[in-house]
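RETRY 2/3 - previous attempt timed out on the joint model. Re-submitting the same 886-residue input unchanged.
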Amino acid sequence: MNEPQRTCAILAIGDELILGQKTDTNSAWIADRMTQRSARVVEHVTVDDDERAIAGAMRRLAGGADVIVCTGGLGPTADDLTRRSLAQAMGDALVEDEGSVEQIRSWFAGRGREMPEANRVQALRPSRGRSLPNPNGTAPGLAGRIEVDGRGCEVFCLPGPPREMRPMFETQVEPVLAFEGGRVVRTRMLHTFGLGESEVARRLGELMARDRDPLVGTTATRGVVTCRVRSQASPSEAEAFRGLDESERLICERLGDVVFARDGNAEAPLESVVLGLLRGRGERVVVAESCTGGLLGEMLTRLAGSSDVFLGGWLTYCNEMKRVQLGVPEDLLSEFGAVSKPVALAMAHGALRAAQTAGGADHALAITGVAGPGGGSEGKPVGSVWIARASGDGTDDARLFRFGGGRSAVRQWSAVTALGMLRLRLDGVRTPLLGQIEPAQDD
Amino acid sequence: MNEPQRTCAILAIGDELILGQKTDTNSAWIADRMTQRSARVVEHVTVDDDERAIAGAMRRLAGGADVIVCTGGLGPTADDLTRRSLAQAMGDALVEDEGSVEQIRSWFAGRGREMPEANRVQALRPSRGRSLPNPNGTAPGLAGRIEVDGRGCEVFCLPGPPREMRPMFETQVEPVLAFEGGRVVRTRMLHTFGLGESEVARRLGELMARDRDPLVGTTATRGVVTCRVRSQASPSEAEAFRGLDESERLICERLGDVVFARDGNAEAPLESVVLGLLRGRGERVVVAESCTGGLLGEMLTRLAGSSDVFLGGWLTYCNEMKRVQLGVPEDLLSEFGAVSKPVALAMAHGALRAAQTAGGADHALAITGVAGPGGGSEGKPVGSVWIARASGDGTDDARLFRFGGGRSAVRQWSAVTALGMLRLRLDGVRTPLLGQIEPAQDD
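RETRY 2/3 succeeded.
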């Protein structure tokens, strides 16, 4: 029952990674899979194509981990040094693996080509190690064992290209990670929109204590504050889920209406939830954008399948476009200015009206603001943005926000907040959102 | 001349990174900037929000690097432990930094809010360290010095959000990296659009030799391949510039019409050049977007001052919007499909026509394609995109592209390629662009 979790380390190898010419996406993917398998990831490391650096990192990590997964450096060229480095870290010598030579030869044969002599080096493995078949490329993986102070660590070396690495990880590494009867690690994410990260933390209070199980942490990504809950001390899956359920209940109790989703799409949770809610109701949305110039439409179409619910929209960057395309009355523009509540509402209602000729929409979102750095005034400083929603049932909602952080941030916050306002409507909740200054917040 | 390079290490901090819930893009960005500054990056490491792990990694890396840059863990919540970890690694205690309290307070005041008490913890710094101002967020950075075996290492801790971290790195870390030792280092960038990075490298040939001075390297960012030329062995500025001029001449000779700008805005060179060319001619542009959903408009408005030249546009995601808003004839849609040359051209001409009521535009760009992952067919596989330009002088241009890399990449390439097509028109050059399959390329 108290067998420890497997501790794992991830080592990415390659000059292009260490120089920052390429972003390493493999390590995050592997870490996620390891965590799902209840392993505890302790460190990710990236080193360049240098035998001493690679072997050194392997030995150091082997001192603190049960399993190391390495990616990269298994190609056929002079700067692919993972094979030699693993042998060095194991205190072993390289030998040619007959099976691998055959596998590489037949990989080329399948493409009507002969194996270039340069690829033969890819069949080398430490004499006490194993080759791991790679069905999607020429580079076999390697498995070996490094002993440090009498303690053994399993090392797996996989090729860098994700479409070769991932299936090899799934079939050849994952089975090693699971510990029957050990502790079970399960995680849950709760996504919120509308509060700042510090306010979320204040409300969560002692739920975020570092010694609590499940452990609760937060991260903020483009306005969405995600609470990550991690149960890691339970002997069974059922008990882990009980702990997660109880934490979820407490979190929802303290955060209320700003919680909009559990788990799901971690990269774009708000977009994905809004699309899902619309799709579930068979409703469609149009947008009318001024200062965001298309960013809201771009967000709504970032995920596949948005054509079910997104009709299109109008980029009315100049006043003439607002007037002609959306029918915003000239006198509203001249009396209140383009960044005003009447104009934001007129844009939203105008978009809803204009969409009727194209099949009709159920909701329209409009954004008009001062993204800066120029264009601000005393009454409407840079960062002032009116966002309006109008819906086919006759309801509407217009709010003034003050966003900071420069042009790009003001635009990002504007678009994501418009999505957040639509989500409030779809979930039937009303709450002020971060940055809102009008209507004034009651609490 | 032989002064050693600065050696650098990068430490990313965060549970969400170690668990693989989020991909670390900061480390690659920092590594790239360090490399451009002639520093040698030796290792990237990621650890979780754990004081012992963070402090341990800092001390270990300090043993082998002159500079460590850390990101993350500076937020206001209980799981933000970078401040305490740095103090521990320095053998120091935390004190409150008066200036930082004021900065955080005024950051909130600028948004019409009071500083939550929770944010006060962000003003802590090691007593022998410094706070680094953060103009774009509440978290100040930290700078300190770790001594290991009598050897000092400068440590910088920056916040995790890229839009806060990047400007702080540029203004507060980069100056520490340069080791010029009497040599004059001058750099130049030449931006190209239309060729892949490997083709640029092939044409540059021996100009990219690693021992050449000036040194020529390439980086690719969202379709723009930038040649970075770096003169670093000249005794005088005049001589450095002579070397840069000569390299520029050779590069332009080999790359031809795809070079569109020198130096200028490194973050958005193509957007900035297109806006500048339009502004110089007093011309205006509108957009008609289908599969990109607003991304092209968003790119055109990313830089300040775009209202001089960008009128607005139409997001015609569904066919009805194409028909009603842009007047694309029904029979073109049914005969050729939405992703076709006639429809792309009809969208561009329709946008130009519709803009007349709003003051008139000189150019229209239209994009219609299959971004995927669904929606592909044998004749029009995922990644097929028609991009059209129509101009007020009666000229037009329509090209079919095949882009790879998934939905997001297809959309990015589509929008940036539309900008690239407009740039060709404004510069009066004609050349095939990367990914173009129709009209077929002659060369």
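Chain B touches chain A through 93 residues (CB under 8 Å). Closing ticket.
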